[in-house]
């Protein structure tokens, strides 16, 4: 099985690959000048928990848990294919000179992120549960030198195809102490 780490990294890679083009498409659709929506400076998983210096806009992909597991089929002898639902969140942080610029930039980023997540390319058997997409916006606040900072997050369920491989039992391993009564 691939697990939570793989789910986060699949989505982070998808955002890194497709979000810049999606931001340009949003710019074009809204009739904005090229470069009005800057590309992300950082797309990270919790391996990198903070924004350093001028890494704005920044996105973080985090897991909120894995609430569901469903057996799909028996694959090879001893292997089982499951569909695992992972609850993921993409945090979006933006910064600019004014409240209005940050509000617009935040909303444009959320739109592009949602469109990227809903895109069908490069997810293979894995998929976003479309009805699970939910957006929450943050308050816009000044930073220490007077610029405005804001954010949002997009929650969704990502269904990942997982194969549980058969692993034969190898017998006792030296150096592992088992405490309690032996099984008979």
Describe this structure in words.
With 184 residues, this protein is α+β, with helices and mostly antiparallel strands. It has a single domain, classed as Alpha-Beta Plaits, CATH 3.30.70. Helices cover 26% and strands 36% of the residues. Strands 1, 2, 3, 4, 5 and 6 form a six-stranded mixed β-sheet that branches. Helix 1 crosses helix 2. The longest helix is centred in the N-terminal third of the chain and has 27 residues. The radius of gyration is 21 Å and the shape is elongated. The mean pLDDT is 86.
Put the structure in a nutshell.
This protein has helices at 3-29, 99-118; strands at residues 42-44, 58-74, 80-96, 127-137, 141-142, 148-164.
Order of helices and strands: HEEEHEEE
* Global shape: elongated
Low-confidence segments: none
Helix segment count? 2
Gyration radius, rounded: 21 Å
Strand content: 35-45%
How would a crystallographer describe the biggest sheet?
6 strands, mixed
What is the CATH class designation? Alpha Beta
Number of domains: 1
Beta strand count = 6
Mean pLDDT: 86
Structural class: alpha+beta
Architecture (CATH level 2) name: 2-Layer Sandwich
What portion of residues is helical? 25-40%
CATH topology: the name is Alpha-Beta Plaits
Distance between the termini: 30 Å
Main attributes?
alpha+beta; Alpha-Beta Plaits; six-stranded mixed beta sheet; 2 helices; elongated
Give the SSE layout.
Layout: H1 3-29, E1 42-44, E2 58-74, E3 80-96, H2 99-118, E4 127-137, E5 141-142, E6 148-164
Parallel strand pairs: 1-2
Antiparallel strand pairs: 2-3, 3-6, 4-6, 5-6
Helix pairs in contact: 1-2
């Amino acid at each position: 099985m691939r697990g939570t780490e793989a789910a986060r990294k699949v989505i982070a890679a998808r955002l890194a690959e497709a979000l810049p083009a999606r931001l340009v498409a949003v710019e074009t659709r809204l009739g904005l000048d090229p470069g009005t929506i800057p590309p992300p400076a950082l797309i990270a998983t919790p391996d990198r928990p903070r924004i350093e210096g001028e890494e704005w806009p920044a996105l973080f992909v985090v897991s909120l848990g894995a609430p569901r597991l469903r057996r799909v089929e028996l694959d090879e002898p001893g292997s089982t294919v499951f569909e695992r639902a992972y609850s993921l969140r993409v945090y979006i942080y933006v910064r600019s000179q004014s409240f209005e610029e940050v509000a617009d930039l935040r909303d444009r980023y959320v739109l592009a992120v949602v469109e990227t997540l809903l895109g069908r390319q490069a997810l293979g058997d894995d998929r976003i549960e479309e009805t699970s997409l939910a957006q929450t916006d943050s308050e816009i606040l000044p930073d220490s030198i007077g610029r405005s900072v804001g954010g949002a997050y997009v929650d969704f369920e990502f269904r990942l195809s997982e194969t549980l491989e058969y692993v034969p039992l190898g017998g006792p391993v030296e150096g592992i102490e088992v405490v309690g009564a032996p099984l008979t």
